[in-house]
């Protein structure tokens, strides 16, 4: 059974940093690209960052470029999102996603809440 468990969210002041983690199980983690999404109150879920299976390719939403860094550890089955220079508009529930591939369905974690506020 595929499982994605996010952690690391919390309350942080503007300009602060947080590091999110997503531990994966139930599939061959090292074979899949992974994504971080977020959903702010009253808004649609949006893609924040993407990382290829080998970490060679990374992409970011324009709103987080230069502030967020996605990384992964294929030995630990974990994908990370380092978030620096946080802004109030970064407040959202952050979700880890394993994409669909062939017969494998997309999978989501339950999310971790990030609140940026003074």
Overall description:
The protein is an all-beta fold. It has strands spanning about 5, 10, 20-25, 35-40, 45-50, 60, 70-75, 80-85, 90-100, 105-110, 110-115. Strands 2, 4, 5, 6, 9, 10 and 11 form a 7-stranded mixed sheet that branches. Strands 1-3-8-7 form a 4-stranded antiparallel sheet, with no helix packed on it. A hairpin with an 8-residue loop joins strand 9 and strand 10. The protein is globular and about 45 Å long. It starts with a strand and ends with a strand. About 30% of the residues are buried. The model has no long low-confidence stretch (mean pLDDT about 95).
Write a concise synopsis of the structure shown.
With 118 residues, this protein is mainly beta. The chain contains no helices and eleven strands.
């Amino acid at each position: 059974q595929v499982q994605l468990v996010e952690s690391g969210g919390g309350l942080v002041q503007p300009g602060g940093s947080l590091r999110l983690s997503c531990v994966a199980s139930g599939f061959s983690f090292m074979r899949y690209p992974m994504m971080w999404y977020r959903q702010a109150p009253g808004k649609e879920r949006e893609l924040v960052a993407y990382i290829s299976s080998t970490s060679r390719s990374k992409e970011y939403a324009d709103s987080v470029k230069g502030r967020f860094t996605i990384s992964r550890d294929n030995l630990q089955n974990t994908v990370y999102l380092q978030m620096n220079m946080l802004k109030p508009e970064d407040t959202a529930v952050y979700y880890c996603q394993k994409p669909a591939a062939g017969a494998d369905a997309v999978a989501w974690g339950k999310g971790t809440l990030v609140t940026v506020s003074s």
